[in-house]
Design brief:
By secondary structure, the protein is of the alpha+beta class. The protein is built from eleven helices and 13 strands. The strands form five sheets. The chain has a three-stranded antiparallel sheet with strand order 1-3-2, with no helix packed on it. A three-stranded antiparallel sheet has the order 6-5-10. The longest helix is centred in the last third of the chain and has 36 residues.
């Protein structure tokens, strides 16, 4: 195996009752085995060679060709390309920004009448749920995601295992044992609907990164060319002319030029001439930096639909327009996540023992923060309208301790330093 590749193995113990025959190819080396006397199933392990080779545009083109094969689609090349593209800081920042706008919402469950169920909302206000919603959002960029719920008790999910996308063939509903052998051993993941969760929020299983990934390749080329330009023209060239044609003299002269640095000095024969040749070429700013800047803007447009929330803007009015566009993306993401969770994840949670009645649905709620001075004004309006505030409300809202045994009856006027 090449040193530029990394071999991954995952061992998955699938705690699922076998209800029917599992479609398995190449049954001679099947990864499915019955656990002793338990009637449960166990998935052996999955192989994945992680290629660390530098990706080029030809890799993107070839990956698309085999991915769109109508008879035998292969996901390994394009998914490896996506991973390489996500090493770009701008692309990573754009995708994280879009994901975090969803994860930073409050997760709640509501009944069929739209009333918030605070007790059952605690089911989804857990770390595993936020990680699962992250995987759902990532499916928009990578095309799909899959998780294996292997850590749970009755009515309580503790965690899950992330399945490599390279091992999944969505068009055939197959989970491959070897990601680089699409015709090798595989199982139909639909046979484990409560444990192997396939997630796809986008229209297709290709993902947004298909059109954004080549931008990162062009950007890397510009960085490399700029670095080469800096090495050639960034430092003035040092030229030494001498009339002494001896090897000893030439070696001494070469050694001095190589070690020449800050406050350097040397003693030469009067027949030696040293010249520092300054670079007279124009700055590479307009060539390389502007290209990188344009590529960053294209990446921003492809992920968040605009540029000014990721890059510098020119005016407040334009920034507001761009922010409205970004909010449209966020609203669409919210609806997609809510629909998927309500339609697909809640039934799974019921099957795993959660007490969630029919008609309950999942909703993302914006977290609102009211400043204390604004809260006081609201409370004053309520008091003026004849409503009483409970002691518990005052404790929770203003985080103060009340002496309920000896309350003060008279009204104290607030102090003012300006009277």
């Amino acid at each position: 195996m090449s040193k530029n590749n990394r071999n991954k193995k995952k061992h998955l113990s699938l705690a699922a009752k076998q209800k029917n025959n599992i479609p398995v190819r190449n049954a001679k080396n099947t990864p499915i085995a019955d656990t002793r006397g338990s009637g449960k199933m166990e998935i052996d392990y999955f192989h994945l060679y992680e290629s660390l080779y530098r990706k080029e545009v030809t890799d993107w083109q070839n990956g698309r060709v085999v991915r769109y094969d109508p008879f035998n689609p292969i996901t390994y090349p394009i998914q490896q390309l996506y991973k390489d593209a996500m090493l770009d800081n701008h692309l990573r920042g754009a995708t994280e920004s879009r994901i975090l706008r969803i994860l930073n919402k409050e997760f709640v469950l509501k009944d069929k009448d739209g009333i918030r169920d605070d007790d059952r909302s605690l089911f989804v206000q857990k770390r595993w749920c936020r990680q699962l919603v992250r995987k759902a959002m990532e499916s928009k960029f990578y095309g799909y995601s899959m998780v294996f719920i292997n850590n749970y008790s009755l009515g309580d999910i503790h965690g899950f295992v992330d399945i490599n996308r390279e091992n999944i063939i969505p068009e055939k509903s197959l989970l491959l044992k070897d990601a680089y052998q699409p015709n090798g051993t595989a199982i139909d993941y639909r046979a484990f609907p409560n444990h192997l969760l396939y997630i796809q929020l986008g229209e297709n299983a290709i993902g947004i990164l298909e059109r954004v990934a080549p931008m990162t390749i062009y950007k890397r080329h510009s960085w490399a060319s700029w670095d080469e330009f800096e090495q050639i023209f960034g430092v003035p060239i040092r030229i030494a002319r001498t009339a002494i044609n001896t090897d000893k003299h030439k070696n001494e002269l070469q050694s001095w030029l190589e070690t020449m640095g800050t406050a350097s000095y040397a003693i030469f024969d009067k027949q030696v001439d040293i010249e520092i040749k300054e670079n007279q070429k124009s700055d590479a700013y307009q060539v390389f930096f502007q290209k990188i800047n344009i590529i960053n803007k294209e990446i921003s447009k492809g992920i968040v639909g605009q540029t000014m929330t990721m890059d510098d803007g020119s005016s407040q009015s334009q920034a507001n327009v761009h922010l409205e566009i970004y909010q449209d993306y966020t609203d669409a993401d919210m609806m997609d996540v809510q629909d998927w969770f309500s339609d697909e994840m809640i039934p799974v949670m019921r099957n795993l023992g959660y007490d969630i009645p029919e008609g309950h649905y999942f909703e993302l709620v914006e977290k609102t923060t009211i400043k204390p001075e604004e809260r006081i004004k609201i409370d004053q309006v309520l008091l003026g309208a004849g409503f009483n505030l409970t002691a518990q409300y005052i404790k929770d809202t203003y985080e103060v301790e009340l002496d309920e045994e000896n309350p003060r009856r008279e009204i104290i006027e607030p102090l003012s330093f300006f009277e």
